[in-house]
Design a protein that fits this description.
This protein has about 240 residues and is an alpha/beta fold. Helices cover about 35% and strands about 30% of the residues. The protein has one domain: Rossmann fold (3-Layer(aba) Sandwich), CATH 3.40.50.300. The longest helix has 18 residues. The protein is globular and about 55 Å long. The protein starts with a strand and ends with a strand.
């Protein structure tokens, strides 16, 4: 099976309220169509690592970072970062990655349909029946002409998933996508999403602090293996395959 993500010796350092934070990834390999959960307590770096997977954050140090989104190409992201090829990174992100935020991130002044159409418009994809089809699978086909503010929390997250999947990406990233929902609604939404991405042959990487939910969804876990404080000033967190 193709390796979609190959990371070696990736480091990201940040300063939060005067306290240093270092995220370390010695080695991670993620294969095509795997369902992955990044697991750890709040503040351990799950969202930071997802943003690196999404090519939004630039690591401070990296030996290897490649993406092979099954389009006949393998992208050496580490080299693009070093060369500051931001436009190329943006194009790869738009074409191959869908991202669902914890808050959903829908634009409040656009209808649900217009929100879902955004990735396709950015890529200048032709209109087809994919929006209606994916909305029907996710159970929001009757909400397409409404503004996000008129939807329930569960419907907004379903719409966020529909937007992330509308352009048929190879990779779906989701940052605690059901954290604000009740457990029953959360399980229902994730069950539908898991079936959908299986049919579309999409690789899923989601962040979660809910161990029980992760195990029920049968996800391969990449967890925070160790943490330490160096010199009383730098908080260090390590994720490893």
């Amino acid at each position: 099976m193709t390796i979609v993500y190959d990371l070696k010796n990736v480091v990201k350092e940040r300063l939060v309220e005067g306290v240093g934070y270092r995220l370390q990834v010695p080695s991670i390999e993620i294969r095509a169509q795997e369902n992955i959960a990044l697991v750890g307590h709040s503040g351990c770096g799950k969202s930071t690592l997802l943003d690196i997977f999404a090519l939004i954050l630039h690591p401070d140090k990296v030996d290897t970072f490649t993406i092979d989104p099954i389009d006949g190409k393998s992208y050496q992201i580490d080299k693009l970062w070093r060369r500051r090829r931001q436009s190329r990174l943006s194009q790869i992100r738009k074409q191959h990655i869908g991202y669902v935020l914890q808050s959903g991130g829908l634009l409040p002044y656009l209808t649900v349909r217009e929100n879902i159409e955004l990735p396709r418009r950015l890529l200048k994809l032709t209109d087809d029946d994919s929006i209606d089809s994916i909305a029907r699978v996710l159970g929001i086909h009757r909400q397409l002409d409404k503004l996000p503010g008129l939807l329930s929390a569960g419907e907004r997250q379903r719409a966020a998933f529909a937007r992330a999947l509308s352009h048929r990406p190879s990779i779906l990233l989701a940052d605690e996508p059901t954290a604000s929902l009740d457990p029953i609604t959360a399980r229902k939404i994730m069950a539908v999403v898991m079936e959908l991405i299986k049919g579309l042959k999409i690789t899923l990487i989601t962040a979660s602090h809910d161990w029980a939910h992760v195990y029920k969804m049968d996800l391969r876990v990449i967890k925070q293996e160790s943490e330490s404080v160096k010199d009383g000033q730098i908080y260090q967190s390590t994720f490893h395959d």
